[in-house]
Design goal:
4 copies of one chain form a homotetramer.
Chain A lengths: L11 H11 L4 H25 L1 H32 L3 H5 L2 H8 L2 H5 L13 H4 L3 H4 L3 H16 L1 H25 L9 H12 L12 H38 L31
């Protein structure tokens, strides 16, 4: 989630609106964000419930009304954001801006195309704003820790995934030949799907080998999957163990970040932010 | 499990009863606790067996009698505890007090409402007292070690769970759209349930994708689940590796705790507790 | 596998026979052990194949003959062992002696009781002798490494298992109540079986929740299982990481053990055992 | 993947052809390899699509033509390789040479034997050449890191696998006896297959225990599988943690390798290879 916010606008009321809508270092700003989060959750829950037939049969009209109400609200919010921001295009093409836009479109598009409205689940991505609001230093720090560890391991994980995909392709095709295109192994892509289901130890059982040779091959794949699962875990564990050690060298106050203004580097004993005076 | 016990009462017999019922540093106290544990196990087993129809048909009356017998016993014990403790309310609202109470209620409530009596499995939570009785220093230490490692990782694990839940919501909804509400993906909540079953690699197979697009999406989710499982493991491993190293600095006799009086800091060569003389 | 061998006998031919049968530091001794291993594998494979109906129908008589032949051979070998050993009872009641005995009994017992002969799979345990024969220092060292790491973690793992069993009991019973004894959750023990299948992420799908509440509870259990699986892995990883570090301090030649006489502490450059002159 | 290339040939045009076909340090050489990769992917995809009946019914003739076209191309390429290389036999019996050969054979063999043509998936192994072309130092380094960690753990993993296989054999046979050859446990090999499916937590559910004793035994196996999965993960994690630490001692520029001439030891600030001047 990028924290680079668009530049603030000029006129006074726009500036005030900007602080409320875009920032969260004032009481009004945080209330706005909290209300937004609740609205997002409610609108997503409404769509989910509507997809359940027994509920839809009874409360369908109400739920659709709720959905349109929130879509209207989000449209209004989106237009406001475009209005008060100094450079609307910069916002519109930022990651947050695109997510904001995409979370309105599906409901509107549903007038034209059935099914598309379920895409409003993209709205759930807006929930990631939660980290912006309750910016508890701890959470941000831990999230960054995980992301950093994964990033540092990304080449290892890519090499590992390439190896797994090759394995899965070869064994999937072998199974197609061995099971003779029967017992659910009706094509090579389907057999590869089975191999993925097996090597990841998910094992639905919708397709499973029946011939002795097939079951033997499957056993080999499973035991390999056993050893294979150890690799990504080992990579990430080693990375995190290293990162934890590195982190312990850095003075502890680097970990605490003000949850309002994000000022870092507080003393360990500090109870209030040295920049905005908010309780830490 | 909180170790903070309620204050002892005044009168002599109450004091003696208190030592037997609440504490386990006397022979009588430990015998009481051991008898209690056996009673708990027997009462839980009785309820379990009764739920098996073939057994219930034959021994139903006997098993129900056993259950009522133990419930009566536990009620008596609970009243005794309230009586001998100096501050009954403090005990009644402590964690152990609530568990003690909840383990009696279901049987009584079953007179009014069918099914509720199975809730007496809450009684199994009383088994956690086992750690109080056989307080083998080793076990307590190891338990604390695990709990500490998990606590230290709790923010990382929360961030991780939030990410998994968002992923599961988005992919679950996509699958609902892709599979067209068929093949078991009959609603968004159900599709999210499927996504959880898949990403955790449980894979019941009660719901599984049938369309090519659905199977492709499922494959992506499974491979992601593969990488994802590495994260919590990495977190806990790194934490424990760190804790193990930290622990090795602390002198070894800090690990041994007397299983009767919980006195810590025994010398490594000590065979008896320096406080109560119990064999370590 | 205990390496404590019974004391050698007195008379000359017994001594020679003892060296061949019990020890593996002579060419004859190793040939004997190798022949024994092949016999064990063949006898186990024969029983396995006989259990396959299509094979049993054709080659049943032959396979049964093979089994009786090997059982006779093993009986002879067992009697020989008793004869040449100085203290027959010590051998008979040692772990290896008991395994040797148990691997003969099932075939004989099958004359009296159907099914019992399949227990000759206990013979596979005799295969563990392989480590005695090809006692490649590397393998012994690595095996000991794993066992040591698991032993050091045994208390942590026990505490962990106790927690998992409590969790599984409570959630299993809840599911029995929630699903109303239907959809396969026909009794509490069966529901606990389901909970174990789920929390270990095996997920057969022979029993799976159908009600919304049941699926929600199952989702919680799965996500918990996700976090839970991290614990034993973390424990063992941390232990092994520690052991690896500790091992690297010890001079490297401690790792190499003579595969014939098991003499330890060879110099890193050594090509032959300092005790028996065998090639390392 | 062995990097040892056959010796270059003598005559001028052969030398030029050699550089294009076998090496990738010229623009022409890299273009050749890239074209080859695309051809491999296309030919594999063609075979996969043809195995899907609905696609095969419509585009079968076209897809078969595509396959024969690429097979012809690869045959031509293989002959070229034999021609321009100085020692054709050395190439023909190198790992890459054998893979190159095997990826042509299946299509030709399909004229004689049905099914054999699906073996052209061996062609996917040729994709491993990708690492040769885009020899991004990072990838090569990471791949080697994983391979090294796995190699260093190979004895531990072998011991572990031996233990798992013994466990699976013993429990599989027990289940065959316990379930009485019914409920899918129709033979010992099939029961062992079930045990592997269970202990690896794949859990298809095509075979699952029905009797109480069987489900109890299965529960024990699952809980053991739980603890067992921790072992390979622990091994690899510990190995990687150690390797990471070791790697951090080596100066960082050892990690960057020129993706054209593979020259190592670039300075961290270097933007171009010190040997061939290629952009790093």
């Amino acid at each position: 989630m990028p924290n680079r916010l668009p530049e603030p606008p000029q006129s006074a009321w726009k500036q005030r609106a900007y602080r409320v809508i875009f920032e969260s270092d004032t009481r009004a700003g945080r209330n706005f964000d909290a209300a937004l989060l609740i609205a997002i959750v409610l609108s997503v829950v409404a769509v989910m419930l509507e997809s359940v037939q027994s509920i839809s049969a009874r409360y369908g009209t109400f739920l659709r009304a709720v959905e349109w109400f929130f879509t209207g609200l989000f449209l209004l919010e989106y237009l406001m954001r475009l209005l008060v921001v100094r450079r609307p295009l910069t916002y519109a093409f930022s990651l947050l801006g695109i997510i904001d836009f995409l979370s309105i479109v599906p409901t509107l598009a549903s007038l034209l195309m059935f099914g598309s409205r379920y895409l409003i689940v993209i709205r759930t991505l807006r929930l990631l704003r939660v980290f912006r609001i309750f910016k508890l230093g701890q959470f941000v720090g831990e999230g960054e820790f995980i992301v950093t560890a994964l990033k540092a391991s990304r080449f290892k994980i890519l090499v590992f995934l390439a190896a797994v995909l090759t394995l899965v392709t070869v064994i999937g095709t072998l199974m197609y030949v061995v099971e003779g295109g029967q017992h659910g192994f009706s094509s090579i892509p389907k057999s590869i799907y089975w191999a993925i289901v097996t090597v990841t130890t998910v094992g639905y059982g919708d397709i499973s080998p029946v011939t002795i040779l097939g079951q033997t091959l499957a056993s080999v794949l499973m035991i390999m999957g056993y050893a294979i699962i150890a690799v990504p875990t080992g990579i990430v564990s080693a990375q995190m163990a290293g990162a934890t050690k590195a982190a312990s060298v850095i003075p502890p106050y680097k970990q605490v970040v003000c949850h309002v203004c994000q000022a870092p580097d507080h003393k360990p004993e500090a109870e209030y932010c040295w920049r905005c005076g908010e309780k830490l």
